[in-house]
């Protein structure tokens, strides 16, 4: 059976069963969150842009935020047979893409996204088994539901599986 590739845009999510591949590009300050049930080989990927939906007035796209995006992803995975108690996660992104002399929360969105992602996953009891977070460079990721590998590709920093 051939791998089907599912492209996930910004503030978007997709789920698949093995042998599907989930991919997203343009992870700068955004965070790509992969959830995986290793027994059923069901995987989901959400590309979040902001930490918390309750901190912003225009929060109509729930996939844009760590708190609501992860919850929606879990619900979609459960619909096709994933067990939420078995889920593990891999995360990538959360970079600080622009240097600033102003050390403000607004300019540090990548770090805030990474912190919120970890808080939400911890609260839900989903362990993070691998991460590639921070730095000042963008990432493209590909998750292989067949075996749970996450390929992180960068410009200038190479590619690696985590």
From TrEMBL:
It holds the Pfam family CheD. Its EC number is 3.5.1.44. Keywords: Chemotaxis, Hydrolase, Receptor. InterPro entries: CheD-like_sf, Chemorcpt_Glu_NH3ase_CheD, Cytotoxic_necrot_fac-like_cat. The keyword Hydrolase applies. Probably deamidates glutamine residues to glutamate on methyl-accepting chemotaxis receptors (MCPs), playing an important role in chemotaxis. Belongs to the CheD family. PANTHER family: CHEMORECEPTOR GLUTAMINE DEAMIDASE CHED-RELATED. This is Probable chemoreceptor glutamine deamidase CheD.
């Amino acid at each position: 059976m051939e791998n089907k590739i599912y492209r996930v845009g910004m503030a978007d999510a997709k789920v698949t069963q093995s042998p599907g591949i989930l991919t997203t590009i343009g992870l700068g300050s955004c965070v790509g969150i992969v959830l995986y049930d290793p027994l059923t080989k069901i995987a989901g990927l959400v590309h979040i842009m902001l930490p918390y939906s309750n901190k912003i007035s225009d929060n109509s796209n729930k996939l844009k935020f760590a708190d609501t995006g992860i919850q929606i992803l879990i619900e979609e995975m459960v619909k096709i047979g994933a067990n939420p108690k078995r889920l593990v996660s891999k995360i990538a992104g959360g970079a600080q893409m622009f240097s600033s002399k102003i050390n403000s929360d607004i300019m540090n969105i990548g770090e805030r996204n990474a912190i919120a992602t970890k808080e939400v996953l911890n609260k839900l009891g989903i362990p993070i088994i691998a991460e590639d977070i921070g730095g000042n460079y963008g990432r493209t990721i590909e998750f292989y539901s067949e075996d749970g590998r996450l390929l992180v590709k960068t410009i200038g920093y190479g590619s690696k599986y985590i």
